[in-house]
């Protein structure tokens, strides 16, 4: 595959004809390649480099035992050791620090035992500040991409961003070891929300599956249609070559659902390489309580985003303390109460 299409985002999206035209080009790029690139400026590159440096310091500077202390039974934020995550029942080899919304212990949602809600077990303040700044930067880009995409479809500018007020944005900071007896990094999967924005180092390992005419794609939000493991060994994957001064962007499950499949949640997988690899994947998401309705079928089935997020994380981390506490304290009951109020 030749290079991916690269776009420059406007500072603000106003709804002009140029914005709508750019939105149409983003949609066309996703429909052809499943992924596109956004150019970054020098200040953004410094923010990315600082977050990458913090990631290296954490993964390299601490022992496994030290890193393993940064977990929480309230939230999936924190450290995930290599081999702990499963995709389609098979262990992944990435080492991860997950950053979900940092919800203080005295917040009513934590007190009320909402699943996945709690403080991030940060390694230190320097790490926290570097990651927050990077997430804020990608969050700003994510909002503009959603506005442009809405305009590109001929919809109101806030069609997608009305879902992201206090969005459940989160990030996975990843390190992949050097290839050894296995080359499995992360098995084929889709991500869960609206957009995935990512910055990778120069090593390479990510593959995406662009839309393929006539291929049925799983609806990952349905309990019996998992995207995990789908197409893992099939033809049709493209290597995402590392490129400097860009972030990559592709749609997640909620955007596939909202658009009735006009945009597909891009399947992707990671193979290990001959050098260790660092990358950061940021997920731009609806509010935890958002009830998402398909644009073309407002009376059809809905996705309750917090329920989708919780079931996906329980599936990836069946043995984690967080999952056990959700089950032991019957925290899923809170989700069914939230659904019935919505
Ligand atoms: O390693 C990558 O580039 C992507 C990682 C990924 O798919 C994820 O964290 O969900
Ligand atoms: Fe992913």
From TrEMBL:
Write down the species. Answer: Lentzea sokolovensis
Q: Which UniProt keywords apply?
A: Antibiotic biosynthesis, Iron, Metal-binding, Oxidoreductase
Q: Which segments constitute the Fe2OG dioxygenase domain? A: 167-286
Q: Which residues form the signal peptide?
A: none
Family the entry assigns? Belongs to the iron/ascorbate-dependent oxidoreductase family.
Tree of life domain: Bacteria
- Name a Pfam family for this protein: DIOX_N
Pathway linked to the protein: Antibiotic biosynthesis
- UniProt-recorded name of the protein: 2OG-Fe(II) oxygenase family protein
Q: Which InterPro entries match?
A: DIOX_N (IPR026992), IPNS-like_FE2OG_OXY (IPR044861), IPNS-like_sf (IPR027443), Iron_ascorbate_oxido_reductase (IPR050231), Oxoglu/Fe-dep_dioxygenase_dom (IPR005123)
